[in-house]
Amino acid sequence: MALTLAALVAERPLSLRVRAAEAALDRPIGWVHPTELTDPQAFLEGGELLLTTGLALDETTSPGYVRRLVDAGVAGLGFGVGLSHESIPRSLVDTAEEVGLPVLEVPRKTPFIAITRAVSRAVAADEYASLVRTGKGQQELTRTAVGKGGPGGVVRKLAKLVDGWVLLLDSSGAVTEASPSARPFADELQDDFARLRAGTLVTVAGEYEVVLQTLDTRARGVLAVGTREPLDAAGQHIVNTAVSLLSLALEQNREHSGALRRLRSGLCDLLAAGHGELATRTMKSLWGGVPEAPWSVLAVTGPASARRALADALDAETSGDKVFFGESGAFVLAVGDVEAVARHASRIGGMHAGLSEPVSTVDFPVGLRQAKQAAEAAKAERTPLVRFAEHAGRGFLEIVDSQAAQAFSDSLLAPLRHHDETGRGELVASLTCWLEHHGHWDLASARLGVHRHTLRNRMRKVAELTGRDLDSPGVRAEFWLALQVSART
Q1: Is 362 within the bounds of a domain?
Q2: Which of 14, 169, 209, 346 is the most buried (most CB within 10 A)?
Q3: How many domains does one find in the chain?
């Protein structure tokens, strides 16, 4: 903490008296400079305590002299009495009070060198404290970075070291890491983030001064540091250390993520080539698990940027035993909890997905072909998702006589519609949902919002009314085609 005028006055051996602008004594002293020049502006940098005996000053010249000192940005004026002047010129005191320049009266017994030594000791102590704080902060950040804290730990540690908040933003301006209470500031910084191309930008968010600093990585990122007061030299050094550590960590993460992406693509190629056992064994060793078969294969296509965003989201938010995904050409492929994958794709937007029939790991190539065909159909129809069963059914209907197909549908579904119209149930909707979920009782009943026993009772009623055995794949196919015909009319 720099020595202030107030702290200097408090040093009793110096016997300094405040003669003007006492309210401004909180100013820090950058250095001490004695001079008898009436215009020393060319030799000042600002922040100095100027010392003079007023050799060339009188009541007439003092007001202009004070204003020149204010223009030069000096912290205050120390006026030595008992040599050139027995007391400080009245006009100098009045003008200094008017413009807010602190004036300290220095008695003859106090040599200027004593004041210089006092300030010098304080500056040296302040620089040493800054050096110690910088070194300690750099050590703490480094330990955090090489430990288990990672980028998130570095961000949180930096916030404590600068007594503020910290955000780590990715290339889109989204928050990837944040210290406590920092996230609400992200929206306020978006315009400044958009203006920043490289280097540093200082801005304001609420009552905080914010330093935006780009990271030295191939993937553009920005560190935002908010503090109530501007960063001092130690704070700036600590922030620069954090920037270097985060740049290195993120670049290593990027390389690691790239290697895993390529490995995922390779495993997709193994599955597509029929090497399911080798692929699943590798998945278990790398991610600790593999989604339970049979698999419905999901193929998602769209712009390259959207596919990358989907892969990033899946990498961050899914576990290996729930979802396996990988990139294959223009598709992101996934098995396991494909509904979660489809939701991610929907949030990103601009993507089209196809879903295969359930297949074993050995039959993955068949599921892959079905999923890609359905995805291409979804793209052509500009719809988010097409199931292969629907796509195949629509394709079959194109070659069937429409009148014959309609007659078949009306005949097969008539008992169910009559039952529903009399208000005794929802057989058509229940049958449709059950078939869409491949006869999976729990999934279908959850989608309908009924108990699985209720759904079983409805399917028994369907079999009773139509005289068809729903356990037969052929019967299920007939019902599915009948429902597809009905949906098209």
Answers
A1: yes
A2: 169
A3: 4
CB < 8 Å & 24+ apart, contacts of 462-468: 462/416, 462/427, 462/430, 462/431, 465/415, 465/416, 465/419, 465/427, 466/412, 466/415, 466/416, 468/412
The domain that holds 211 is classified in CATH as 3.30.450.40
Model pTM score: 0.45
Using DSSP, state whether 298 is helix, strand or coil.
strand
Say which amino acid occupies 124.
Answer: A
pLDDT in tens, 460-487: 999 999 999 988 888 888 888 888 777 7
In the sheet that 352-359 helps form, which strands lie side by side, from edge to edge? 323-328, 331-336, 295-301, 352-359, 385-387
Give burial (CB, 10 Å; 0-12/13-18/19+) of 302.
buried
Q: Does 125 reside within a domain?
A: no
Q: What CATH number does the domain containing 66 carry?
A: 3.40.1390.20
**Which CATH number does the domain housing residue 425 bear?**
1.10.10.2840
Query: pLDDT digit string (tens) for 245-257?
Result: 887 777 666 666 6
Rounded Cα distance between 159 and 144, Å, is 13
Total residues found in the chain within this entry = 489
Cα–Cα distance, 142 to 139 (Å, whole number): 5
Handedness of CA 88, 92, 94, 100 (dihedral sign): negative
351 is a domain residue: yes
